[in-house]
Design brief:
By secondary structure, chain A is α/β, with parallel strands linked by helices. Helices cover about 35% and strands about 30% of the residues of chain A. Chain B is built from six helices and six strands. The model of chain B has no long low-confidence stretch (mean pLDDT about 80). Classes of the chains: A alpha/beta, B alpha/beta.
Chain lengths: ~150, ~190
């Protein structure tokens, strides 16, 4: 009897938790560094195409997105093809030049990622590319998903 | 006198809730983070056209013209070609040195230029498929060259190279894809 009691009293082992805040902080800093907070609300439909020979964009901070696709009017109702940069629809394509030039001044190694709806036509894409050439943002990327 | 002062208890900030605060922030960032990496086909656009400087002279045989027309049909140097055949044709065109030195194909892989032109009504996904095939052709060429010289696949080799300038395979097969000036009309 006394044997058991003795054992019970002695066995009070604890996991040391003093280092826990440090570990948590490490994780926290990792996620803070990797997070890109800005997300836009899409006003155009962007269903990406799929391709096989694609590359990853490692530095997400260098990337600026241009969305091209049919405008979302209502539930499953789509309007004409429009261009969206950040949160705004672009009324005239000439504006792209100014916007992208300003972005290029901020980030000289800018990569423009074109997120184009799969049912778009090349005319709009070419027009946007011409504006990008005028702006001097020559590094572009056609956003595609990996082929399954 | 001094000794007495030192014995006084030091004021401490309670730090037991530090972990809780850190956890809260951690959970917030965990939820907000998007892990999915962006993938795509990279390309460098040509600088805007300049009226004063004429385009550099290119020999006809070093240029492969790929036209994707408004019906989504692919024409290579004027011949209609299926999208699935583009890869084969590009490999043949770029890697002429290894073959019979045909006078119709490129002088060397370094000189080979693939020019891509589209019409306004060209479907975007056909264009991307075609671009994908061209990239696939170069990946194939680089892979086989890398296997021959180093015995590893190209992606493994390029990972082991520290500076891009040292990448021998890339210098052997530089990807010269040019986007042609789009037609202003139609």
């Amino acid at each position: 009897m006394s044997k058991f009691q003795k054992k019970n009293a002695k066995a009070k082992q604890e996991v040391p938790t003093t280092a826990m805040p440090d570990i948590v902080f490490m994780l926290l800093i990792f996620f803070m560094v990797t997070t890109v907070l800005r997300e836009v609300t899409l006003q155009v439909r962007v269903e990406l195409t799929r391709a096989e020979n694609i590359e990853k964009i490692e530095q997400k901070r260098l990337v600026s997105y241009i969305y091209i696709g049919p405008r979302i009017v209502g539930n499953n109702v789509y309007g004409e093809t429009r261009v969206q940069i950040d949160d705004a629809l672009i009324d005239e394509l000439v504006f792209i030049r100014r916007i992208m030039y300003d972005k290029l001044l901020e980030q000289p190694r800018l990569i423009v990622s074109l997120r184009v709806d799969r049912e778009s036509e090349m005319g709009m894409v070419n027009d946007v590319q011409q504006e990008l050439r005028e702006a001097g943002t020559l590094q572009i990327n056609y956003s595609t998903r990996r082929l399954q | 006198m001094f000794g007495k002062k030192k014995e006084r208890r030091e004021a401490e900030i309670p730090s037991s809730s530090l972990a809780d605060i850190a956890f809260l922030l951690l959970v917030f960032f965990l939820v907000v983070t998007t892990i999915d990496v962006d993938t795509g086909i990279g390309l460098v656009l040509p600088p805007p056209p300049d009226d004063t400087t004429p385009p550099p002279p290119i020999r006809e045989r070093n240029l492969m013209k790929i036209l994707v027309n408004s019906q989504g049909m692919v024409l290579i140097n004027g011949q209609p070609t299926a999208v699935e055949e583009v890869r084969e044709r590009v490999v043949e065109f770029v890697d002429n040195a290894n073959r019979a030195n045909s006078p119709d194909l490129s002088v060397s892989p370094q000189a080979a230029i693939v020019s891509i032109q589209t019409a306004r009504q060209t479907p975007y996904d056909v264009y991307i498929n075609m671009l994908d095939e061209v990239r696939g052709a170069y990946a194939e060429l680089r892979n086989s060259a890398s296997m021959q010289q180093f015995g590893v696949r190209y992606d493994q080799y390029s990972d082991s190279v520290e500076r891009p300038a040292d990448d021998v395979i890339r210098q052997m097969y530089p990807m010269n894809v040019s986007i042609a000036e789009p037609d202003p009309g139609n």
